Amino acid sequence: xxxxxxxxxxxxxxxxxxxxxxxxxxxxxxxxxxxxxxxxxxxxxxxxxxxxxxxxxxxxxxxxxxxxxxxxxxxxxxxxxxxxxxxxxxxxxxxxxxxxxxxxxxxxxxxxxxxxxxxxxxxxxxxxxxxxxxxxxxxxxxxxxxxxxxxxxxxxxxxxxxxxxxxxxxxxxxxxxxxxxxxx
DNA sequence: AGAGCGATGGCCT
DNA sequence: GGCCATCGCTCTA
Length: 184
Prior knowledge:
DNA-binding; alpha+beta; 8-stranded antiparallel sheet; single chain; 31% strand; 3 helices
């Protein structure tokens, strides 16, 4: 998937409309990627800004691999590594529109509304059954993977969410009008 | 609808 | 010791 070899900002836009699929022992869940954020090593808000560490090392590896990190003591978030090996860049997947395995998602999330299933980075990780063990895995093949689906009509660029540094950069992208976007 | 805040743990300074 | 690429509850309106 050559889009992933490009800069995170290009890849973040290209990934909108892609389908994220996870085949787990409990069944398949899938959703359309509707919101992303780009992070590069020259960006103060990126985990890779201060160089390679044990935690962020997969982001310095080859593109197309999953980088899953633990945050706020209770949540995990899912990224896809982009660019060239050694760059330390990637795309955070912030929201999905659920399309398959909604019942399993409800079971995992314990929420009533479909809208609350996957409209946030940690929510989608929980709904899809993604675990830290998936970190480093190739997302072009395997049980957790992305595939091209419908190209979005209109993409909106906006400021990122939940960061304190480099706030002004418009490196969040989402599909205009989609109700599963975490923050319009 | 929107602001405030607690939960909870690993990582960095 | 402080800070988080968060979520969901509670309070005010």
